[in-house]
Amino acid sequence: MTRPHIVVVGSTMIDMITYAERVPDAGETLIGERFVQGFGGKGANQAVLAARLGAAVTMATCVGIDALGDATVENLRREGIDVDHVTRTDQASSGVAPIWVERDGTNRIICVPGANHEMTQQQARTAVLATPQVDGVVGQLEVPQAVTSAGFRAAKERGAFTVLNPAPAGALDPGLVEVTDWLVPNEAELVELARSLGVSADGTPEHLAVAIARTTGTRVVVTLGSRGAAVCEDGEASVHIAAPTVEAVDTTGAGDAFVGAFAYGLAEGRSATEASRLGCACASASVTRHGTQTSYPTPEEVASLIQQLA
């Protein structure tokens, strides 16, 4: 069987993670418990998870001409991801993401996109059109929206589905919404999305998902953390997907794990409900370990997860 092929038009970051009992208040200095540097960026995270599930993945991104960029490209290669459409720039440094993680696993993140904002529309379009097989194209908001729109428009020319993770939260360009099949926000992003669209942010996430699906003409999956996810395919009702019960130690990258697995599931031919179950399983597994990509299930572990869902 031919492996499903996913193109990720998105970001790469170097995660700089500090673990502490709590985050400091304004003007306060605390002693942290430990520090870890690793690979991240919403685009790269989603690409890595999809690749570990068995997808062929092409990454379209931009990194700096610096040591962090070198390390990022090598990490993608190690994960089996096609890096032919990773470009380098001397106009900005590679992206970084300082992250603070508290004892209960809660995280706070500041993204500094750097070279990610040097991506061009032509780069995204070429990555999608030059890839021999494209089943789905995935994007986020850590690169310019016009770049993601160009990649998604090329996806439509190829007959591929598109998945947009509207994160970090912000207003969406109408042109990007127009070429988006699936919106996959978390609860906070869902509320921000509703406000930006002029939709009342009152009500449950399930109700908001329906309202946003109707307003945008897209299908919506909202991730609900330990409560799983809600899937709205028809603008009429949403289906709740429960997540496995686990003890969370670090939620960093869990949403990206869901998106990567969800996109893989769709590309493999699963229903949105089944793809969401796979997403919940992978995200739940990731929060039981520290780090971002380092917390993701290995290829052997994802094989076991898929078997459990069969």
CATH class membership = Alpha Beta
**CATH homologous superfamily classification:** Ribokinase
- Sketch the major β-sheet: 9 strands, mixed
- Averaged pLDDT: 92
**Number of structural domains:** 1
Order of secondary-structure elements: EEEHEHEEEHEHEHEHHEEEHHH
In which range does the helix fraction lie? 25-40%
* Secondary-structure arrangement, i.e. CATH architecture: 3-Layer(aba) Sandwich
Biggest sheet: strands side by side, in what order?
5-4-1-8-9-10-11-12-13
Gyration radius, in Å: 18 Å
Structural class: alpha/beta
Can you tell me the residue ranges where pLDDT is under 50 for at least 5 consecutive residues? Answer: none
CATH topology: UDP-N-acetylmuramoyl-L-alanine:D-glutamate ligase
End-to-end separation? 18 Å
The coarse overall form would be globular
Proportion of strand residues: 15-25%
Number of helices: 10
Total strands: 13
Describe this structure in words.
With 310 residues, this protein is α/β, with parallel strands linked by helices. It has a single domain, classed as Ribokinase (UDP-N-acetylmuramoyl-L-alanine:D-glutamate ligase, 3-Layer(aba) Sandwich), CATH 3.40.1190.20. The strands form two sheets. Strands 5-4-1-8-9-10-11-12-13 form a nine-stranded mixed β-sheet, with helices on both faces. A four-stranded mixed β-sheet has the order 3-2-6-7. Helix 3 runs parallel beside helix 4 and helix 9 crosses helix 10. It is globular and about 50 Å long.
